TrEMBL record:
It comes from the Bacteria. The lineage of its organism: Bacteria, Bacillati, Actinomycetota, Actinomycetes, Propionibacteriales. Pfam families: Fer4_8 (PF13183), LUD_dom (PF02589). PANTHER family: LACTATE UTILIZATION PROTEIN B. Keywords: 4Fe-4S, Electron transport, Iron, Iron-sulfur, Metal-binding, Repeat, Transport. Residues 73-299 form the LUD domain. Gene3D superfamilies: Alpha-helical ferredoxin, NagB/RpiA/CoA transferase-like. This is LutB/LldF family L-lactate oxidation iron-sulfur protein. Residues 315-384 form the 4Fe-4S ferredoxin-type domain.
Length: 478
């Protein structure tokens, strides 16, 4: 899979199924409300929060304007510090690099830091096809992996699961892939976390290779940055002999100074914390300390396509905080799986079409997975105007179908309206049949529209007829 879960239906169909799952809706409502409340408290502490958002957006925009130069600087800095840099145009090239490194070292398993980009390229599947097991070490990612499930949230991939479900997953699956869950396992969060630590510890100590992503990559020092809450990432980044980091090309930041606003925005917007419990940085190879072979894969996979879109490129500012998901009324009711991608919610509704382009029914449905309420823009720490991009992408979907042999019903309706409004005589003729048209529409044409909206009753008299009868005198109004 790359960018989209294989076999997922278009959003409207997937959303209908999700809405019927009352347990899912309860889990989502509880979790998103909790995260929203935490975020609101810590954001309210920052008097200059709006100025900080503007600063973060400015840093990302500067990078996108000079992305080619910043990436060359990053490569030079990484190589100077002993790292090997690979450029990958797509998922297949990135996966090939990781598989080749694993083969060269004869490993049959790797441990992974939580990484959206490795999910995007389907790395776990690519490794499994070569007989290499990839173990997720983030707690939520572990739950998803053991449950043979798919992630449904950027920050909390197992947000659709409650504690009782997690307990059953641990009891059923841990023993099949490693250390089993302890006897008497309860659904207390601390107990579940302890069971996960025990299960993962043997994998950390045994693995000779790790795979990570990166939240940021500082161009002038060649430093990669990962922020996390549990410490599992720190274990992956320090214990194995070999480390491969797959990094989207938009993650580059020019300098350490420009990293500052982003590190202040991210924890408050994602976990509702003032700072992340673990912020790990590494620059190439340090003799005798940490991995002694470091590879960095700089991934495009549609990002230059998004960069070429004057309106859509702002989506590449995204720092993967998930704030837009937690405030979105659509996401809260249907969850992440309905979006059919590792990038769900409002940001996924724009990022996936930008990375992939139009033409696929599932991807084309995503810009419509929104009420355009604007809550996502208000929450975004780097001021991505998601509603603006959604409308822009909707126009692209419509444009792509303008020359279809069999036009869509809405296209026929719009063309008919344009024809009628194009000449005064046509409009006058159409007005005579308004009542008839509304009546027929109620019966055959607009059932899907009127199931959620009121269809106005046709007036007894048109405006033109009223004007002719009264000469515009309001006292003659019916």
């Amino acid at each position: 899979m790359s960018a989209t879960f294989v076999g997922m239906p278009p959003f409207p169909e997937a959303a209908r199924g999700a809405l019927a799952d009352t347990q899912l809706r309860h889990n989502l409502a509880h979790a998103t409300a909790t995260i929203r409340e935490k975020r609101a408290r810590v954001v309210a502490e920052v008097d200059e929060w709006e100025e900080l958002r503007l600063a973060g957006a400015a840093v990302k925009d500067r990078v996108l304007r000079d992305l080619d130069e910043q990436l060359v600087r990053l490569e030079e800095s990484l190589v100077a510090r002993g790292a090997t840099v690979h450029w990958a145009r797509d998922a297949a090239e990135a996966n090939r690099v990781v598989v080749d490194v694993a083969r060269r070292h004869g490993v049959d398993e790797v441990v992974k830091v939580k990484s959206m980009v490795t999910q995007e390229i389907g790395l776990n599947d690519a490794l499994a096809a070569e007989g290499i097991a990839a173990w997720e070490t983030d707690l939520a990612e572990l739950i998803v992996q053991l449950g043979e499930d798919l992630p449904s949230h950027i920050l909390v991939p197992a947000i659709h699961r409650n504690r009782a479900e997690i307990r059953e997953i641990f009891r059923r699956r841990m023993g099949q892939v490693g250390r089993p869950a302890p006897d008497g396992l309860t659904d207390d969060p601390a107990v579940l976390a302890a069971a996960a630590r025990q299960h993962l510890r043997e994998k950390f100590l045994r693995a000779r290779m790790a795979v990570s992503g990166a939240n940021f990559a500082v161009a002038d020092t060649g430093t990669l940055v990962v922020v996390e809450s549990e410490g599992n990432g720190r274990m992956c980044l320090t214990l194995p002999e070999v480390l491969v980091s797959v990094v989207g090309i938009e993650k580059v930041v020019p300098t350490w100074a420009e990293l500052d606003p982003l590190l202040r925005l991210l924890p408050r917007s994602s976990t509702g914390e003032r700072m992340n419990p673990y912020t790990s940085t590494w620059s190439g190879v340090t003799p005798g300390d940490g991995p002694q072979e470091v590879h960095v894969v700089l991934l495009d996979n549609g990002r230059t396509r998004a960069l070429a879109d004057d309106i859509g490129r702002q989506a590449l500012r995204c720092i993967r905080c998930s704030a837009c998901l937690n405030v979105c009324p659509v996401y809260e009711r249907v969850g992440g799986h309905a979006y059919g991608s590792v990038y769900p919610g409002p940001i996924g509704a724009i990022l996936n079409p930008l990375l992939k382009g139009t033409g696929d029914p599932q991807t084309d449905s995503l810009p419509y997975a929104s009420s355009l309420c604007g809550a996502c823009f208000e929450a975004c720490p780097v001021r991505i105007d998601i509603p603006e991009v959604l409308v822009h992408l909707r126009s692209k979907v419509v444009d792509a179908h303008r020359h279809d042999r069999v036009p869509k019903p809405e296209a026929v309706a719009m063309r008919s309206a344009a024809w009628a409004f194009g000449r005064q005589r046509r409009l006058r003729l159409a007005e005579r049949f308004t009542g008839l048209g509304v009546g027929i529409g109620r019966r055959i044409g607009v059932a899907r529209w009127t199931s959620a909206r009121d269809l106005p009753v046709a007036p007894r008299e048109s405006f033109r007829a009223w004007w002719r009868r009264t000469d515009g005198r309001l006292d003659e109004a019916p």
